[in-house]
Structures are given as structure tokens and as C-alpha cells.
Design goal:
By secondary structure, the chain is mainly alpha-helical. The protein is about 55% helix and about 0% strand.
Length: about 180
């Protein structure tokens, strides 16, 4: 799955968790952790490519590439997409924070969404790395019907969240104060 869909799914899950379970979490941080594996894997490569573009100046535009190809960061892909690495980092972070950091579960959601939506030919998700390189040959996320169905599903989810009134910053129906009965005293 691509990074925008990861962010949208994570935001929807965070809102639903807050409203149905009363879990206290910050949606923005959940979204950050939901896109973190891809930022870890591709952020250094994009940053280095943009820095090279700035250094090379106008001469770089003649190459026909918007960003020069840089292989930096690709070894980080299995690190950010490993359930084992996630569990280790999540466990340490929760111990240090002395509470469960529900926002970090966006990272786990990212991995779970990538397992069936990546194929052997393009960034298969080695979710048991570094113990194993096992991965599943899923359906590539850029397959037209999968990409469209992902965004149709997101649209339906967000319409449901909106219909329930869960997308507003105000008080949810469950959180409204109950007033005392009117009548007899």
C-alpha cells in the first residue's frame, strides 16, 4: 500500500479506537507511526536525492530525472516493515514511557496492510526480518482494481465516521454530560 492510504487508514483506526474504546491517543502521532516505515525506508533516499539536486543545480535538470537516483535507505526497508523490530521498539518505548503507546500501533497496522499488498517483484514485506526473509507474494498495491477499491473503501469508512459525527473536534455523543432528570425534586 502507498503512504497516503497508510495515513488515512491509520487516522480512521485511531478515531474509531478513541470513540468506541475510549482509548486516549493522539491521532496525529498515530498517523506519523502509520507512515513511519515508508519514511524510514525512503526518506533518506529522497532527502539525499534532493540534496544532490541542490548541489548539482541546473545541470541536474538535463538528466531528465526530477530526483537523482540514490540507493541510500533501501536497507532500512526490512527494518521498518518487520513485526519483530516493531515489537522490540514498541516494548522498549512502552517500558520507558511507563504506559502503552497506542499511537505506535499505527506502525503495526502499516506492516499488516503491506503484507498482502506487496508482491515478490516489488518490496515484498519481510515481516519476520531479521530472523527470516519469509514474505508473501501479495497483490501489488498499484494494481488498478486494488488501488481503486482501497480508496473506495476509505471513502466508505470516512463517510461512516462522518455520519456518526466522529470526525468533528467536538464532544462525541458518548462524552456529552448527562443532565439531571427534569421534574420532581
Amino acid at each position: 500500500m502507498e503512504i497516503v492510504a497508510h495515513g488515512l487508514w491509520t487516522a480512521a483506526a485511531a478515531v474509531a479506537a478513541k470513540r468506541t474504546r475510549g482509548i486516549r491517543l493522539r491521532t496525529g502521532w498515530a498517523v506519523w507511526w502509520g507512515v513511519f516505515p515508508d519514511v524510514l525506508a525512503f526518506g533518506p533516499m529522497i532527502g539525499a536525492g534532493l540534496a544532490l539536486r541542490l548541489v548539482e543545480g541546473a545541470g541536474a535538470a538535463q538528466s531528465g530525472q526530477l530526483v537523482p537516483r540514490v540507493r541510500l535507505g533501501l536497507p532500512l526497508y526490512p527494518t521498518g516493515h518487520s513485526v519483530l523490530v516493531f515489537l522490540l521498539v514498541f516494548g522498549i518505548a512502552c517500558i520507558l514511557a511507563r504506559r502503552v503507546l497506542f499511537e505506535m500501533l499505527g506502525w503495526l497496522l502499516h506492516i499488516m496492510l503491506d503484507i498482502p499488498t506487496h508482491s515478490y517483484s516489488y518490496y515484498s514485506t519481510r515481516f519476520l526480518w531479521p530472523v527470516s526473509n519469509f514474505s508473501i507474494d501479495g497483490i501489488p498495491w498499484w494494481t488498478p482494481w486494488l488501488w481503486v477499491s482501497t480508496y473506495v473503501a476509505l471513502l466508505v469508512v470516512y463517510l461512516l465516521l462522518w455520519k456518526k459525527g466522529w470526525l468533528s473536534r467536538g464532544v462525541s455523543p458518548q462524552e456529552k454530560p448527562v443532565s439531571a432528570p427534569v421534574g420532581r425534586e
